[in-house]
């Protein structure tokens, strides 16, 4: 109903059994708080409170699951019982008596840290947007200038010699923008920026945003993991010691990054000395001391430090101002001390330090590899360009346009051949065991990593289709029949086994090699049959996941493995006794579809994989056509100055086309449940693939952190208020996203409005209140509400059905309240005076 309540008269009759309390003696409450909590449990289970014993186990006795746990915990928060309990509290205290005692203990004496959002005037946002638009124009001017020159020089005419000139111009543009522009701009843009807080949309923020834009198109992604990474970071302004292994490219503001000698940083780690929180920009130095190990997918907040030879485990958050002591072992989100971590990492860290540096032959091999990768990226476009250009010269403009319709399949095939052939030539099979990282094997491993990243970057829409499994088998993986694999990241294909009918969701890291203390470790990783690996989960190499198991969203499984039939969630992982029932669907809709349905999906997903590059090819062709007419009979100034505007118009046309496809194939998204093999899922995934592989790369991604991104997302159906800072493009069911005024959606945060559970697609709404703040790489699941001005820290998970009270601060996987006896977030401790001048803000306010 409009009030947000449920209209019971419209609900269908129940078809499942009613929850019932276990038989046995009923232990009555002994105080008022136990009685209040029993009443909340009774409402959640649909029974009378008199039927519940205060010693009945929420999961084992009553059959509760994660969604009911979120419902109960949210109700406890709303009622004011205890100081904002978390889902983890309920799993560790699963009876009314235990949770009551826990909420009454000294651990809950400290209140939740309040969250206060700094609001900004519309004029401030508009002014910043105008400057950002000018920056984008200048960037496009630099990017398009060589092509404009070629067309002007030839008076707009096309020929075979002009084709070669065009390819040379494209190569020159690519190399200059990728290698030269970030190097020349990084230090000047970062000059004078010191730790502290700055005004969002102010001058310092605009410099940081511009730097991020240039680093995103720069060479960090291809250099990361190579012997040249430390040198490249030093050129950008970072302080980096020798003998480091830095496998991540997610590094911003290098001048405030300090990485000691011999440090090891894993895949996907986020090192961001600045972030936006609650309407302010927080800046702080990130320090990784000599010999330290930082695991995969770690987030280091501004102002955090990892001590010498300390170990920070996978999927861990080191909050603002926190330090991991020397030689210590910390893990989890937020990170806390632990006895030991992944056995492979511990083995490498206990071994003697490898003092050897990269040899000259290794550096030369790296230059050769970089050249091959960079030239290869351009060469992949040549078959499609030659096809279109040949049709254009032979039969005219219309024939060239028709030929662009074939560029998508040609490009996808070209990328797959390039990646597969070179992968097998460079490193056909990774050798099991521990090896020196600074070796020929290390160089080959780096090149294979870059080839697989090429595949994800250039043919992203090929993943999460029926073509993914045979593609991964071609690369060396053992993928069982009926397995569904999405955009897996950082894998060693020849070390990976995925069992029959299993499901690996988006951006899961499964079995990637480990780097530590100058060594590299390869281990086989096995995922059993009918097992689910959730979005952004991290499964370390050497792990054995049993059959019918579940590894939840953003979860790191326990180090001793996952037994068959068990379910785990969190970082650190907690055992889930029960899973929510996904409904009784026939196997034909989930695991064993008829042949004609499979054939139909192959056809749909062929177009899903090839349409994005086709659309981009058509856009590029029309852009060149307009540029050709502009160059005819004119001096260079006219086409050069107009070309960026034509590029913007071309990008907006592609984005508008993607939005139109979404509206006409899916329509407005509504909360619903659909089995994997339903036609709706095919339509939805088709529209999502087009958005992710066409709209985002051609322009949406460049608008991150500008006032224009919310405008574009509204085209797709999202409801987004005024003055919202949007740092991510990770949305799928746009109409289910509701964001209030002045909210902050962090960098690479995921508004996950759907999940595939037991091969059933469940989708529902996400509501982010006015002034609320979501941190870097946090994941918000569906059916959640974030209250006004509530704050969720980076690398946190908000479970489906959860609700965060207004003006409170949270962090963790799953989320827990940030209490006053812990280090508060900077936005909670420091504010910027609303009357501060631009000069005052540019100087920063000490945190």
Read across the widest sheet, the strand sequence of neighbours is 3-6-11-14-17-18
Task: Spell out the CATH superfamily of the domain at 595-814.
Answer: Hexapeptide repeat proteins
Coarse morphology: globular
Number of helices: 23
Count all strands and give the number. 50
The CATH architecture assignment of the domain at 595-814 turns out to be 3 Solenoid
Characterize the largest beta sheet: strand count, sense, and whether it forms a barrel: 6 strands, mixed
Can you tell me the CATH class of the domain at 595-814? Mainly Beta
Distance between the termini: 45 Å
- Strand fraction: 15-25%
Mean pLDDT: 91
In a nutshell, what does this entry contain?
The chain is α/β, with parallel strands linked by helices. The chain is 40% helix and 15% strand.
Note down, in words, how this protein is organized.
- A six-stranded mixed β-sheet has the order 3-6-11-14-17-18, with no helix packed on it.
- It has 847 residues and is α/β, with parallel strands linked by helices.
- It contains 23 helices and 50 strands.
- Residues 827-847 have low confidence and may be disordered.
- It starts with 31 loop residues before the first helix and ends with a helix.
- α5 packs across α19 and α12 (382-395) runs antiparallel to α14 (407-426).
- Among the domains are: 27-108, Non-ribosomal Peptide Synthetase Peptidyl Carrier Protein, Chain A (Orthogonal Bundle), CATH 1.10.1200; 360-571, Hexapeptide repeat proteins (UDP N-Acetylglucosamine Acyltransferase, domain 1); 595-814, 3 Solenoid (UDP N-Acetylglucosamine Acyltransferase, domain 1), CATH 2.160.10.
């Amino acid at each position: 109903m409009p009030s947000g309540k449920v209209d019971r008269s419209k609900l269908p009759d129940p078809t499942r059994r009613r929850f019932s309390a276990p038989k046995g003696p009923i232990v009555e409450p002994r105080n008022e708080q136990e009685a209040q909590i029993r009443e909340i449990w009774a409402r959640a289970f649909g029974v009378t409170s008199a039927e519940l014993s205060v010693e009945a186990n929420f999961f084992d006795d009553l059959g509760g699951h994660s969604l009911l746990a979120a419902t109960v915990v949210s109700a406890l928060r709303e009622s004011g019982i205890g100081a904002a309990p978390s889902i983890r509290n309920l799993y560790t205290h699963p009876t009314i008596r235990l949770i009551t005692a826990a909420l009454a203990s000294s651990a809950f004496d400290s209140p939740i840290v309040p969250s206060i959002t700094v609001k900004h005037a519309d004029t401030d946002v508009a002014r910043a947007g105008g400057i950002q638009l000018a920056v984008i124009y200048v960037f496009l001017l630099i990017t398009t200038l060589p092509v404009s020159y070629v067309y002007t020089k030839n008076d707009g005419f096309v020929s075979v010699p002009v084709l070669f000139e065009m390819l040379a111009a494209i190569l020159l543009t690519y190399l200059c923008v990728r290698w030269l522009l970030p190097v020349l701009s990084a230090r000047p843009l970062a000059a004078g920026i010191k730790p502290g807080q700055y005004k969002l949309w102010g001058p310092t923020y605009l410099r940081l945003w511009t730097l991020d834009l240039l680093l995103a198109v720069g060479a960090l992604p291809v250099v990361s993991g190579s012997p040249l990474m430390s040198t490249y970071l030093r050129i950008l302004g970072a302080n980096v010691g020798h003998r480091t292994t830095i496998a991540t490219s997610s590094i911003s503001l290098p001048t405030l990054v300090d990485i000691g000698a011999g440090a090891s940083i894993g895949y996907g780690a986020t090192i961001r000395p600045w972030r936006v929180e609650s309407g302010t920009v927080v800046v702080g130095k990130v320090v990784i001391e000599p010999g330290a190990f930082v695991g995969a997918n770690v987030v280091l907040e501004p102002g955090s430090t990892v001590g010498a030879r300390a170990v920070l485990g996978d999927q861990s958050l080191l909050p603002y101002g926190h330090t991991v002591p020397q030689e210590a072992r910390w893990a989890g989100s937020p990170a806390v001390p632990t006895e030991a971590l992944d056995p492979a990492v511990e083995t490498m860290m206990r071994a003697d330090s490898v003092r050897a540096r990269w040899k000259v032959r290794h550096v030369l091999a790296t230059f050769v590899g970089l050249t091959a990768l960079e030239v290869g990226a351009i060469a992949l476009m040549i078959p499609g360009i030659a096809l279109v250009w040949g049709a254009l010269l032979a039969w005219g403009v219309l024939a060239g346009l028709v030929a662009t319709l074939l560029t998508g399949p040609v490009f996808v095939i070209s990328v797959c051949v390039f990646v597969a052939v070179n992968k097998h030539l460079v490193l056909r099979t990774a050798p099991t065991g521990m090896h020196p990282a600074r070796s020929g094997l290390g160089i080959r491993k780096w090149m294979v990593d870059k080839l697989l990243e090429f595949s994800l970057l250039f043919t992203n829409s090929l993943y999460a289709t029926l073509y993914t499994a045979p593609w991964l088998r071609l690369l060396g993986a053992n993928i069982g029949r009926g397995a569904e694999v999405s955009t897996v990241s950082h894998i060693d294909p020849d070390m990976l086994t995925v069992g029959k009918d299993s499901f690996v969701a988006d951006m899961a890291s499964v079995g990637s090699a480990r780097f530590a203390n100058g060594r590299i470790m390869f281990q086989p990783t096995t995922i059993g049959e009918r097992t689910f690996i959730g979005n952004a989960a991290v499964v370390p190499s050497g792990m054995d996941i049993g059959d019918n198991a579940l590894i939840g969203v953003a979860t790191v499984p326990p180090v001793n493995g996952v037994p068959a039939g068990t379910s785990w969630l969190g970082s650190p992982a907690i055992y889930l006794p029960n899973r929510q029932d996904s409904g009784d669907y026939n196997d034909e809709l989930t695991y064993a579809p008829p042949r004609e349905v499979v054939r139909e999906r192959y056809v749909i997903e062929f177009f899903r994989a090839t349409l994005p590059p086709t659309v981009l090819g058509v856009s590029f062709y029309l852009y060149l056509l307009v540029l050709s007419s502009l160059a005819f009979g004119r001096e260079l100034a006219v086409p050069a100055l107009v070309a960026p505007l034509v590029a913007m118009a071309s990008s907006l046309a592609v984005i508008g086309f993607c939005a139109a496809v979404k509206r006409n194939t899916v329509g407005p998204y509504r909360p619903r449940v659909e089995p994997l093999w339903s036609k709706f899922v095919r339509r939805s995934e088709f529209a999502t693939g087009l958005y992710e592989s066409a709209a985002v790369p051609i322009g949406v991604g460049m608008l991150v952190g500008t006032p224009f991104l919310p405008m574009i997302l509204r085209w797709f159906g999202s409801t987004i208020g005024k003055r919202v800072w949007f740092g991510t493009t990770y949305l799928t069911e746009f109409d289910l996203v509701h964001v209030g005024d002045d909210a902050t959606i962090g960098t690479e945060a995921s508004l996950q409005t759907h999940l595939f559970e037991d091969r059933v697609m469940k989708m529902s709404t996400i509501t982010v209140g006015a002034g609320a703040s979501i941190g870097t790489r946090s994941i918000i699941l569906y059916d959640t509400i974030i209250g006004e001005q509530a704050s969720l820290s980076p690398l946190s998970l908000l479970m489906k059905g959860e609700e965060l009270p207004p003006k409170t601060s949270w962090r963790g996987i799953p989320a827990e309240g940030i209490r006053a006896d812990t280090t508060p977030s900077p936005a909670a401790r420091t504010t910027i005076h609303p009357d501060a001048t631009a000069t005052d803000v540019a100087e920063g306010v000490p945190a």
